[in-house]
Write a structure and sequence with these properties.
Rossmann fold
């Protein structure tokens, strides 16, 4: 039995991982699905990356979790990298699922194409709390391109505005992920076009992990909605010894 902590991406909450967690629990593992600070309904959207990282550190400490397999999806890669740097003794393996892998001093916006930065800058400037929401056409065509229209819409309706400072804040690390002593895995969904293929997730970002296990499966950036069972299987392959 292993202990998994699944850290969601931007616009999501931990609740949206529950369909993925169910098959992992059915296989005999313990699974936690916390919501990162700034992403819960009612949270202050003005907060940045440091409180987001601290919230998951606190979650691990409050629940006395150790020997953890810690997964991060997309923006969640920023969070789990910071957590592993802060409390390495609690982490058994990191799993990045189509996730950002930052080096010390990098922010998420450093790793996305300029047109996304321009879009998010405009959306955040128009908000009253420096939050950003993903336009539905981008969600439909680039994030959840493997789902029927009704599922794409219903999933989108469950999203919430994201604190933009977590995209612009630069992470402070004592060492880069390639130097982390814990084991590392990268799950790459092969139809994920949330980032342009010319600036894709793997190998551009995955290779920043140094030595890592690669698990590739068909699916979009949001396979947690379109095929949660397949994602659960991939997570267990990525997490096994």
């Amino acid at each position: 039995m292993s202990t998994y902590v699944l850290v969601h991406g931007a616009w999501h909450t931990g609740e949206l991982f529950e369909d993925v967690a169910a098959p992992i629990r059915a296989a005999g593992h313990v699974v936690h699905c916390p919501t990162v600070a700034g992403n819960a309904p009612g949270d202050d959207r003005r907060q940045g990356l440091a409180p987001a990282v601290a919230s998951i550190v606190t979650y691990l400490e409050d629940n006395d979790l150790s020997d953890v397999i810690l997964l991060g999806h997309s923006y969640g890669g920023m969070v789990i990298t910071g957590v592993a740097d802060r409390v390495p003794g609690r982490i058994r393996r990191l799993i990045y699922w189509n996730a950002f892998v930052p080096s010390d001093g990098e922010c998420l916006n450093d790793m996305v194409p300029p047109h996304y930065v321009d879009l998010f800058d405009q959306v955040a400037a128009a908000s009253d709390d420096n939050s950003v929401m993903l336009p539905y056409p981008i969600w439909r065509e680039a994030f959840i391109n493997d789902a029927p229209a009704d599922l794409a819409q219903s999933a989108f309706d469950r999203l919430n505005p994201h604190p933009y400072a977590t995209f612009t804040d630069k992470i402070a690390l004592s060492k880069n992920p390639a130097e982390f002593e814990c084991a590392k895995s990268y799950i790459n969904c092969t139809e994920d076009t949330a980032l342009p293929q010319s600036l894709g997730w793997h190998p551009r970002l995955s290779e920043k992990l140094g030595l890592f296990r690669l698990v590739q499966i068909p699916g979009s950036h949001e396979i947690c909605f379109s095929d949660p069972a397949a994602l659960a299987d991939a997570i267990m392959i990525a997490g096994r010894d």
